Here is the input.
Amino acid sequence: MNFSLNNVNKKWFWGTIILVVLLALALLFALKTISDKNKEMSGFVGQMTYEKSQIEQEYQDFSKSMDGLQFKTNNDSLAHQIEMQQQHIQSLMQELHTVKATDTQEIARLKRELALVRSVMLHYVNIVDSLNQINAALTTENKVVKQKYVQATQTVQQLSKEKSTLTDQVKMAARLEAKSVVIETLTDRNRKTDKVRKTATIKINFTISKNITATPGDKIVYARIMTPDNEVLSNNPNDLFPFENRQIQFSCKKMVEYQGTADLSDVLYWQVDQLLFPGTYRVDLFVDGNLMGQQTFVLKK
Here is the structure.
């Protein structure tokens, strides 16, 4: 009986030992499996974090490249398109910045967007390069044209006694000049006076020099009478004429028939209808949009 009880106890003892060993082995296996999974997950997170940082870097590189493209083109429409694409890249970068590295679905989507950005950028690079090549060709062509123009201008200058171009010489030669300008200040009885209070009329005598190179025909002579404080004497603020791409005021005007084959003398009158002050006045005469002559006169107290 004792022999049987001892055998039973031994069996339970060894069975327990074996069970404990098996449980220990199972626990070790489970711990190892968890450890391996943790390592695997840690490696996965590290890989995804690295991949995210690489994508972020590529987006930043594309953003800088887009900035560079804007400075390489003078085409406003293309520059606007590049700017819109740059804003799109900035938006994607902001999305990527807020996405977790473990969000594989969003990372994959932003990676696909990156591929589209790359293709669009290559498209713009090709366009900018093509336009720059065209501009370079046009610049070269323009240089050739300019060189030919310079050579032609130099040839004209060599044939001319003056330093100005032939066109300028023709224009200058065709300009009318006043051979003489004589100012008379008259009273209301047409007597000469230099007293400011007695002056009722300002008479402008002028002679246009002979000029056979000028275009003959009817011409309007404009007179500007300038006060001592450089104001224009005028009876009507709407009395204007063109001079050097702007409209300026005149005091009086007269149409004359100029043939160019002989000197032409004529007279302009301006009736005083405002208070004058003592001092030195100046009369400027214009014709064909050019200053023809000048003269000053003095009014006393």
